[in-house]
Amino acid sequence: RSILVDICSKANNQLSVDGHGRLSVAPYIDPTSKAVSWVLDTDDPRGVVLSPGYEDSDSSGEAYNRSVVVATNDKRTILASTDAPASSPISSAYRGWTRTNVHDLSDMSPFTQARAQQLTNQYAVDDRSQGRTRDCTCMYFPVKAGEVVDWIQDGAHQRHLVQTAESDLIAWTVKLTLKK
User: Fold this and answer.
1) What's the 3-state SS for the chain?
2) Which end of the chain has the least Cβ crowding within 10 Å, N or C?
3) Alpha carbon separation from 99 to 84, 111, 127, 178 (Å, rounded)
4) The model's pTM
5) Does residue 164 contact residue 177 with C-beta atoms inside 8 Å?
6) pLDDT in tens for each of the 180 residues of the chain?
């Protein structure tokens, strides 16, 4: 990972590249709170998802199950942490080991324990979601990274964030990596 991605992640921003190849930085918005841009219905025989369909990958072993915030200023240090719930498949109880992501902050405002805990809970969402993606090839449509798609399979709806979209204009397809 690049240092720019780390900086943006710590500031709860998303680093991306726009359609012209320019870097852009914007606040991270949870996919569940974003409007759906596209619907991908695998049940529809006239849908855009091509055979053989899709492939899920889960490298959740790389996901962090403990998030820690260490906030420092000239006078003191504040620590806050949160662990994945014991019922989660990435929890220490389930895995038998802990993987911690430490977020060092020097500009937290307000400089309080409550703010540190709030940031820890906020960072934990991203720390825990690493590793679960879905790759699929579709007929071409003008989708872009950062948009949210509604994936319909067997009548069930799931929201996914488009992580990458690679267009092949010779075959008129687009290969998507969707983040769950």
Assistant:
1) CCHHHHHHHHCCEEEEECCCCCEEEEECCCHHHCCEEEEEECCCCCCCEEEEEEEEEECHHHCCCEEEEEEECCCCEEEEEEECCCCCCCCHHHHCCCCEEEEEECCCCCCCHHHHHHHHHHHHHHHHHCCEEEEEEEECCCCCCCCEEEEEECCEEEEEEEEEEEEECCCCEEEEEEEC
2) N
3) 10, 26, 10, 24
4) 0.56
5) yes
6) 467 777 877 777 777 776 677 788 877 676 777 899 999 998 888 889 986 667 777 666 678 889 999 999 988 999 999 999 988 888 888 888 898 999 999 888 899 999 999 999 988 887 887 667 889 999 999 999 889 999 998 899 999 889 889 999 999 999 998 887
Taking alpha carbons only, the member of 159, 175, 155, 157 closest to residue 167 is 175
Q: Which two tokens stand for residue 90?
A: 């990435």
The token duo for 59 is: 């490298």
How far is residue 120's CA from residue 70's CA, in Å, rounded to a whole number?
9
Distance of alpha carbon 74 from alpha carbon 110, whole angstroms: 14
Beta strands at 173-179 and 132-139: parallel, antiparallel or unpaired: antiparallel
